[in-house]
Write a structure and sequence with these properties.
The chain is α+β, with helices and mostly antiparallel strands and 82 residues long. The chain has a domain of 52 residues. It contains two helices and three strands. A three-stranded antiparallel beta sheet has the order 1-3-2, with helices on one face. It is elongated and about 65 Å long.
């Protein structure tokens, strides 16, 4: 017999937008962006930034960070199936 469970959703909180400058090649920057995406951060833009005074390459990354306690649709579905 199937039962319905009432799912308590946390109060709605807004995402934070951040601009982060990373020192490194495009490949290194994209690796960091992939790690952030695995943590549910949304990468919105990756642009070349100004070189450092020592000539190192930088990239400016704009991200949206979920509020504390935020869960993905997949997380919610897993809870329902458990």
């Amino acid at each position: 017999m199937l039962r319905r469970r009432r799912l308590e959703l946390p109060e709605e909180r807004s995402w934070q937008q951040r601009t982060i400058t990373l020192i490194g090649t495009r490949e290194q920057t994209m690796r960091v962006c992939d790690e952030w995406a695995a943590e549910s951060w949304q990468v919105m833009a990756v642009d070349e930034g100004p070189q450092t005074p020592t000539g190192q390459v930088t990239h400016v990354v704009r991200v949206a960070v979920p509020p504390p306690g935020w869960r993905t649709d997949g997380d919610l579905l897993q809870e329902l199936e458990a």
